[in-house]
Predict the structure.
Amino acid sequence: MDQREGQRAGAGIAPEQADRKAERAAARRARTLRGGTIAAVSTVVVLGTLATVVLTSPGWPVLRESFFNADVFAEGFPDILKAFWLDIRVFVVVEIAVLIIGLIVALVRTVNAPALFPLKILAIVYADVFRGIPTILLVYLVGFGVPAIALGETETGARPLDWLPTEPVVLGGFALALSYGAYVSEVYRAGLNSVHRGQRDAALAVGLTEGQALRHVIVPQAVRRIGPPLLNDFIALQKDVALLAIIGVTGEAFREAQIQTTTEFNYTPLVAAALLYLCITIPMARLLDRWGGVEYAR
């Protein structure tokens, strides 16, 4: 009898709970609608004000003709787009090399093995030196220094280092890999150090070796944690591929835009190249925001 009364009492409370739940949902919808309306109005006001100030300024006609010329854009954009394909290929190849270099350097610095002490010293020197040199300076030094060494002759006329590459795109990619490999190695190392030591001890306790624990337990957790900062380095690398233009790489988007700019005496080609870079970096930035938010939620 008491059980039936409890059931009836519970059935009597359920409608009230449903009403309160509906009221809370309606309140949330109202707040969302109010917030969206305010955001839309403020956005229109701010952007409208900025557009009015720019479009009505005395210098806008000159700025539009110099940077946003539709005819120059339509004429030069196909060649810049074709050249941008080289940027993408260089970025993909260099990024693969950076991931490998960074992981190797981080593992050498993290693993405590006496036999690896000399390599650890070299890894520390590598990370400190190539993080300390500006990337543009490193590209310049490698791009012009290596060919000078490879093409230099001894007193006997021999060229002992003629096996070194002299193609600007190869040397520029190598310089970018050296620079970003040093940065990424620190990202990897931070991820490896963030994995609790108990994970290693547990892996060893179940019979795994040091190498197996590192491969199957520690590294996978570290890589998952460092995803957002790695993606941030990818974005920076994608932009720095344009530095290859300073060592004479032909067929690169920024270089092609420079050539068109000097030919047309107009800066619109540079704006076209910038838009192509934005087409890559903005989606990556939004992916970084989403990835970072997911990791933070965990």
User: Anything to note?
Assistant: Residues 2-55 form the longest helix (54 residues).
